[in-house]
Amino acid sequence: MSINEAHFLALLKKGDQAAFGTLVHTYSAQVLQTCFRFLLDQADAEDISQEVFIEVYQSIKGFKGQSKLSTWIYRIAVTKCLDELKKRNRKKRISSVGKLLHLEDVANWLGGGSRPDKKTEENETFQLVMAALNTLPDNQRIAFTLSKIEGYTNPEIAEIMNTTTVAVESLIYRGKKQTGEVIKNILKKNDE
Model pTM? Predict the structure, then answer.
């Protein structure tokens, strides 16, 4: 940790409002985008993003600096999103549909762009693939999303998920394998 980072963290731990404002300004867009990718609803993503920063503010004194501050914030965001999904008893809907189906507007949306148009969302193939990807176990879906959509490295994912790099590699591999076969079958049926 550099001297500036250590000083910034010390200010945050003292409750410095300007430092917290800087932290929110620095990470708010990334946290909102992450929440949206998990929740797939803008209003819910905004609500959870606010909860993330409330949690950061309330918990910053306990942050020991064993990971990067951004990783710690991201871990809080992921946890809050998963809690929200469980509370509502919804399945998580995280996927790389656009990349797998080569649908440019879906890939753009997953990359942080605008939502796909209604026609794409209502497309039967899109719906089938979403259903297939929602069959992944939670930990596979999280690892797969962090890797393929968010672009995190396996060691960073291991830190976020509080597991080993080997476990992350296995989760991503199994997620690819499971969804790949289902999606191939869906696409094969559409070609017939």
Answer: 0.53
